[in-house]
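Input.
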Amino acid sequence: MATTEGKGVLLKSDAIADGFRAEIKATLAAAPRPPKLVGILSTAAEPSKFYAEFTRKQCEALGVAFELRRVGQAADASLQAGEGAEEAIIEANEDDTVDGIMVYYPVFGAQQDHYLQQVVSPLKDVEGLHAKWHYNLYHNIRFLKPETLASSLLNASASGHLNVADDQPPPGYVKSILPCTPLAIVKVLEYTGVYNKLLPYGDRAYGKTITVINRSEVVGRPLAALLANDGARVFSVDIDSIQEYTKRPQTAAAREFHTRHVAGPATLGLDEVLKHSDVVVSAVPSRDYKVRTAALKDGCVAVNVAADKNFEADVRDRASIYLPTIGKVTIMMLLRNL
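Output.
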């Protein structure tokens, strides 16, 4: 679960995932039938195939019905990657036996994959990548009435803007779906105590400075927004700039609503940002990128999200807690969304 070789703790994600696994099992036990998740695999890429198999094993262990639908190169090596992916998504959207859909990205590349993410019905989007869910995330809309999902984007969004005392939706509302990896990181930070449970819900990251390295629409930017919406001061680092995310001050006129983050250019460089950061999350898809241990704040929490290790081998000489991977928590968030 955790080891203490060196100064800092090497924390495995198993213990965090196990708590959510128990929650999911209890929910499934009360369900009238097992939910059905369809995975759409359209490439021959090994990471995608590995993730599909990992998903299947986790679903089987929990009693979730999982069906992998292979199209494109995954079905026939002579076909193009992604061929038939859109048609497979539409078919799953229209299949009343399917409760959730996940697509193994990347398929075509960032721009066209973004289009595919919008083809997935928000009613079945367990990855939280549809524009409906991103709109709610960026506007700090935490709950909504499920019947509004069939309405227009703006009409559906307005009904969920509620201020509540905790993370349980009020009667008639459900939680808004959040992207799996950013949500998993938030759960990791709750587990490690970065989130202060004595503070009001929606402000439990108050007083923390967090750096997120990567500003993709899948991980980095939504994570920065989530953390800022929970009260943290967040530095979003990308290849060409650093932005600062903070929570908009709450005014008397807006007390009934969750205030949302604002973003602007940072005035600090990367080394200065890291020196002040209580948490550093890195999700750079490169084996060559490393966060320098010497630049880290003593006692920080370091979280590696990328498939390759983004931290130097001696990271625990500065970090009090280091998580080398969060994949097991991410898959639990996906099944929790389902």
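Confidence is low (pLDDT under 50) at residues 152-160, 252-257.
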